[in-house]
Amino acid sequence: MQGLVDEIIAMQFAFMMNTRMSTIARLLIDEIERAPRIAERLLFPSDRRLRRVCDAIIAQPGDCHDIDYWAREAGMARRTFTRLFQLEIGMGFAAWRRRVRVIEAASRIASGQPIAKVAYDLGYENAGSFSTMFHRTFGVVPSALRSS
């Protein structure tokens, strides 16, 4: 499953999902039922300050503090924080946090939690915006996890 998570993380979402991306996403969704906490398998920075921020977000994926807050928590200027995060993880902070949320969401939905509750718990204002983001990421609507 680590390879599937790595593939999802590496995907570029500025375009429509192709067949390969869709197949990987569906396979990952199938595997989620077997591993309830895959969010912990995301890439993590080696810098201890950034790791502390990432650990806090994993612990509370619905936290809505902005990047300036997290940069201060790491003891860095925003620009330093964003550059170092990009360098260590290979993606921006917002993209990484969004991936944490979507993987956590998939795990919670697969375990039976209501979609609306998951959406609100993970910081989305409504279930509709959450469903749109989930579909863009995995190529399926959140309710597809219920039928798998």
Helix content: 55-70%
Query: Cα-atom Rg, whole angstroms?
Result: 15 Å
Number of strands: 0
Q: Give the total of domains.
A: 2
Helix count, per DSSP?
9
Whole-number mean pLDDT: 80
How far is it from the N-terminal to the C-terminal residue, by CA? 17 Å
* Weakly predicted, low-confidence segments: none
For the biggest sheet, the summary is: none
Structural class: mainly alpha
Give the DSSP E fraction (strand runs of 2 or more residues).
under 5%
Order of helices and strands: HHHHHHHHH
Note the overall shape.
globular
Short summary of the structure?
With 148 residues, the chain is mainly alpha-helical. The chain is built from nine helices and no strands.
Could you explain the architecture of this structure?
The protein is 64% helix and 0% strand. The radius of gyration is 15 Å and the shape is globular. It folds into two domains: 2-41 and 95-147, no CATH class; 48-90. With 148 residues, it is an all-alpha fold.
